[in-house]
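Both lines are retained for reference:
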Amino acid sequence: MILKTNFNSGVLIKSNKRNSLNVLSRNDIINLFLKNGCIIFKGFNLNPKSLLDFTNKFTYIYANDANRRTEVYDKKIKTVDEGNQEMPLHSEASYSPSWPEIIWFYCVKPPKKSGWTTICDGKKIYQDLSTKTKKFFLANPITYKMDIPYGNNTIKKKPKKIRDWFVNAVGVKKSKIDMNNKSIYIELDRYSVSKLKNSQDYAFSNHLQIILERDPQLLSWRIGDRNKLPSKIQNELKKICAKNTYKIKWEKGDLCMIDNKRFMHGRT
């Protein structure tokens, strides 16, 4: 038997008999995902080797994850950033020209006491913001500055001049390639609020709350003429996010499918 239960924001699909995920209709999952933005699958007979058989039904192109993360099981599957520190809410690579639409989390070994994944519905955040704060985010784009490594930078080469580079993405203001250090520097404008797919609704989903040192690819961000949010907006946002944040208390074999342009995630 498969049970479907709504939680704070999203859908929990649970199997009491260790069913295969193949018993679920692809169209049903797509409809649930478009409506709710997040699906947690619990109690299914799933292992790392069969994981891609399921995700391939919904994902046609996989984004290149950060080079710092270790590949496991398959080149498309990597670990998350390890550590004992809290990770504030953010949308994966929302500062990047290649901003993923869907992200997948799979639990191989659950934490015992803490380290829970947190998720927060950016649609609810935007709905709860005051009109004044909505106006601020709608009017002011974020300028992200990033330095993205590529390839293997252990090979020593003669220094080459840094030159302009073309990145085919809306919002890119500047991009340069350093072929000696194998990195691409990009400045990109992107709003903190975006319109949801197949919907008239908006979602607050971005990298404004991240601690810069935790993501070495992101050098800095500015919104308008500021490098931090006004204190009133920051306090309002903190309160609204806390009210709408849900903890995923992982069990072995759990899978989570997240709309990365609607939901933000983090870690306790």
Observations:
- The mean pLDDT is 88.
- The longest helix spans residues 231-244.
- The chain has five helices and 18 strands.
- The helical segments are 26-36, 48-55, 122-128, 131-139, 231-244.
